[in-house]
Design goal:
Pfam families: Cellulose_synt. The chain is mainly α. It has nine helices and no strands.
Amino acid sequence: LRWALGSVEILFSRHCPLWYGYGCGLKWLERFSYINSVVYPLTSIPLIAYCTLPAVCLLTGKFIVPEISNYASIIFMALFISIAATSILEMQWGGVGIHDWWRNEQFWVIGGASSHLFALFQGLLKVLAGVNTNFTVTSKAADDGEFAELYIFKWTSLLIPPLTLLIINIIGVIVGVSDAINNGYDSWGPLFGKLFFALWVIVHLYPFLKG
């Protein structure tokens, strides 16, 4: 939350790399890197939309992906494969194992649905309305071993959005499977696509489900 709020404040300040520092020797790749470090909290909005739509589809019986041509399907698969290949190459280049990569994917969704979203709204309030936000700094010292702090549950409003996404997707899966059982064999085919997207969200939020 602290890092994301700082990024939002820079994004809406005069020092934003989108318009600051031209003619001062900042190279384009450096500028892109700085831009990436300040705009990422904005991705929380589309991320939450994407995590909500699968549940909506299962609850309403409609599908978010329309029927597309074979050519469009090939383009979609090519993009999907290129994203997967990019991830594999980044893992090989960075020496990151599949377990660490998956943890990073999970925390990308968890952070995007919680701290990044709150930081975006708090940053807008601070920049546009002058409302200051206070941080509760957690203690880095552990009383009972090195990782004791990790096992202490502390309630925060940041938990509400990811828990909500998890619950509505689980409910959507239950409702979708129940409808398919009641409606017969023909309804199972369209259901699998909807279940895939909902299970994608649930698997990414699995730490909350486990908790």
